[in-house]
Specification:
The protein is an alpha/beta fold and 79 residues long. 30% of the residues lie in helices and 25% in strands.
Amino acid sequence: MEYKDKVLILTPVKDAEGFLDAYFELIYGLTYPHDLISIGILESNSSDNTYFKLKEKLPELKKNFKSATLWNKDFGFQI
């Protein structure tokens, strides 16, 4: 099978530090060609180290996927 369609995976996260390892394991486990996958992550209002862990991982993601972008935008949302 020939893959040609580009895929964008957008993921919003908040206080997700404890879930990031599993998230990346699943993303890297995708059988779709990684050079056709772009990753977009929006981190917002986290009270843990979610943003900093994602920022550390960003260069690796950029190397292994078509593109990877991390945005940080706090909306003041609290539960």
